């Protein structure tokens, strides 16, 4: 088990986008101790040229510009890894183009990087593993063929020169390193996808499937137009010389081979592509061509009837081609937590299967331990779009997720037993993955292709065993229905109970249901919700909101079952004058708030491992009985709608809440946690903002003070919620935009259609 940090420092125009700064790891050395607790043996770690010597000046005596460089950060971090017994795999350029005095197209880029590599080896002679340039083929495509990153060229010859420069830099860097440390190993990474196609485009798929090996072929000295017919590298050698690369440039790699000691395979669900000559079936942004055919280039997982081959099959294919040690060096999935767990386990089992089939598989790398920022825009913008990893950084300190527990199990050789792992990932569920009409792709020919197909089918099979469910109380309520809906979407086995099936206020009923269903977790969404009626119905309110959760807590604690239950912002009196955090003392103003405060205390006393989610002001597209939907319906119909101007709340979009709660439940979180969309608004301002975003005339929206509304129960003036533990939900602006989109998708005929530009974004 290896680990890795997303460490890209790429350049866009004159701006460097630094993942280490964005994630906070640059100033958080304690991360390394957290990483060590995962049981990993090696860590892909940045010793990046752009960070060590960002402002250096290249001179004949100092081509890398490291005179006056600041090594203090890498001194501290590599030293700590050495103390922790973790082998660093030093990365020198990670999707970058070097400091400002160079770039991927400069002829002297290889010599400059080699000089920097020598400086690193001389400073850290005990470091034995290096990746001088991460993913040369991918980096050269993004920087020189597609123009996303510096130097922003968009032609095939520039791409070829950038790739050759990166590979030559790798050869020279390893030569310089080995002159200092002869033991040094080259761990060369590349995004190893695969292209599938219809029968007509089989020729284009074959070309792209040969091009994907270029990094490894160049380093091994295999690329030359005069190699034997059909030998590895012969086809690409002819293509590169056709582009304008000289035979002498390719011959240099034959004369200076540097085959990797480990071939590092980086693999993502979207790494496998599908080409279809019927572009009209797919969105415009997928359209492309080669001058001979127009076609769509889409994710194979979304259209290919056979599904993806997966990382295990690609590891075996790489081994068959080179007969060199292989490893998975990246395997990240941005999704819900159970899908991240399923992907990690599939990659691990795929690596095991490839090894059992004869491949020399050295390791599987969990990537990225700290998550990643802005890869949804290919790191061309700094929007703060975060994808959690093994640790979630949306907390004051990195918070371990369920992935950390799975890593520990795998590293220790234990059989993972989390209940959600009984179901396959969405990429193995046709109803979940097929966005477009399924197409059966043309199959490669030959005995090796047949063996790989059989292998892919074998290791990708689902292993079924009895799954423990999540038990959800409150079948008819907003939250209960939302949990059931999203558990269906996420393939989390569940059972939803009504009061007749399990009365949470009756200990015998609770015990019977838990013993019969044997859930691994209980999500309690049942309760008394009529805040004003509770003033005259105290006993019933307390039975449902305090006694019931306490009974559930005692029963769950006795059986080792996880428990999630809900509380409210109404446990506070609103006098703080700013958003409340988890450690603020409750001081309810009404009976409903008293019942929720009592529930918090009793639940955590009976079951300290329970998770209590305080939340506020639900709204969603699946239930019309909420404030935002009611306001929009009335205003859209030209009716008057009255809302309080002197009550400030934090509104909560139900899908955001449910997704976050399910992730937290899988992570094993406990205690009280505030979950609401970011921002604080009065009820009036919430209705106004929703109407404005929906394009609804808000002239008939009327503000009123709370004392004029005649509500029996007192309300706090400001019960807005914030969190000192984790901020997991997006802003209210983002939540409202998605809510309106979901309303339109659900067919709300009273809602105006969005502007044309919004419709185009929705389609994309």
From TrEMBL:
Belongs to the dTDP-4-dehydrorhamnose reductase family. It comes from uncultured Chloroflexota bacterium. InterPro entries: dTDP_dehydrorham_reduct, GH, Glyco_hydro_1, NAD(P)-bd_dom_sf, RmlD-like-bd. Signal peptide: none annotated. Keywords: NADP, Oxidoreductase. Catalyzes the reduction of dTDP-6-deoxy-L-lyxo-4-hexulose to yield dTDP-L-rhamnose. This is dTDP-4-dehydrorhamnose reductase. The keyword Chaperone does not apply.
